[in-house]
Design a protein that fits this description.
The protein has two domains: 136 residues, 2-Layer Sandwich (ornithine cyclodeaminase, domain 1), CATH 3.30.1780; 195 residues, NAD(P)-binding Rossmann-like Domain (Rossmann fold). The protein is built from ten helices and 18 strands. The protein is an alpha/beta fold. Helix content is 31%, strand content 24%. Strands 1, 2, 3, 4, 5, 6, 7 and 18 form an eight-stranded mixed β-sheet that branches. It has an eight-stranded parallel β-sheet with strand order 10-9-8-11-12-17-13-14.
């Protein structure tokens, strides 16, 4: 019987792969979706608190070994309670469980807070690298990046932006202006960030931005952004579902998602109201196998940038959690981190 290793939040961070490797893991995940992976849409229950969630996210990645020994199997369990910060608790709590692919034995259980933050930022990075290649815009100036929201996700995204877009000029905004100001000061010290400024609102942040990363907290007011504020060739990465990106943007832009079935299952009621079907998935574009029918063609490249707006919506896929957790487990074993739990 194999040991069951438990990793705390601090131990997960200590075993987290370096940023460049996280980007490799994210691209591996995105390329595998709908090809080498099995991952049903999120299933969940509905806690009583308004706006809360409790989701199970199982996933399997088929490896290269014929006997299945190189496969990855696991699941994330995540809860979100938006009233928690008022009582001094984090909004989200999550665990990842990994299983042996040959026997099904549990191998590890670990805190997934840092995994969620880092894999999400790496998936955003995969999209940015594909749709905005190079470190400077077409006119030779540093890339202008708007970050909407100054919470945990913003903190995990900023190092990725600095890594991929050296010299980037950030404009940050948040409903809490003091939090935006503090994060801007912190971002200015991060490698690759050319400058970072807090601005009072979304419009001030996104106007003339080459890249917009939307990371605002969930709330009742959805699709709040006016597309007229955006630059003609902006790349808009929406991590917050449709809290900012309106259906009108999805209609006129190249509309890309991380996983099609999950998006279609999520598009109901007020969530993604009026949104069209996706034009493609990130993985299809990376693999070059976008179906010819029912999809807009990827925009032609003009001096290293894409012509026209792009909207990338990624809802978070359990496969990324499993891929990241497997790499973290391997590093934790090498470093002697965690506790072996009795069965």
């Amino acid at each position: 019987m194999k040991p069951l290793r438990h990793l705390s939040a601090a131990e997960v961070m200590a075993a987290m792969p370096p940023l460049a490797e996280r980007l490799v893991l994210a691209e591996k995940t995105i390329r595998a979706l709908n090809r080498d992976a099995e991952m049903p849409p999120k299933i969940g229950v509905h806690p009583r608190q308004t706006g809360s969630l409790a989701h199970a996210m199982p996933a399997m990645l088929r490896g290269g070994a014929a006997d299945g020994s190189a496969d990855l199997i696991g699941a994330k369990w995540i809860t979100g309670f938006p009233a928690n910060p008022a009582i001094g608790l984090a909004t989200y709590h999550a665990l990842v469980l990994l299983n042996d692919p040959l026997t099904g034995e549990p191998l590890a259980v670990m805190d997934a807070g840092a995994i969620t933050a880092q894999r999400t930022a790496a998936i955003s990075g995969t999209a940015i690298r594909h749709f905005l290649p190079g470190s400077v815009a077409a006119d030779g100036r540093p890339v202008r990046v708007a970050v909407l929201g100054a919470g945990a996700q913003a903190r995990s995204h900023i190092p990725v932006i600095g890594h991929l877009l050296p010299g980037a000029r950030l404009r940050l905004t948040d409903i809490d202006s003091a939090r935006a100001t503090a994060l801007a000061a912190e971002a200015s010290t991060i490698e690759g960030i050319g400058s970072a400024d807090a601005v009072p609102g979304v419009r001030e942040a996104v106007e003339s931005a080459d890249v917009v990363v939307s990371l605002v907290s969930f709330g009742p007011d959805r699709q709040a952004l006016d597309p007229a504020w955006l630059a003609p060739e902006a790349v808009f990465v929406a991590v917050d579902y449709d809290m900012q990106a309106p259906a009108a943007l999805a209609d006129e832009a190249l509309f890309v998602v991380d996983e099609r079935d999950q998006f279609l299952a999520t598009r109901s009621g007020s969530t993604f109201s009026g949104y069209p079907d996706p034009d493609a998935t990130i993985g299809e574009l990376l693999r070059g196998d976008v179906p010819a029918s029912g999809h807009r063609a990827p925009r032609p490249s003009v001096e290293g940038t894409l012509a026209g707006r792009v909207l990338v919506t990624h809802l978070g896929v359990g496969l990324a959690d499993v891929v990241f957790a497997s790499a973290i487990l391997a590093r934790a074993e090498q470093l002697g981190l965690g506790r072996l739990l009795p069965r």
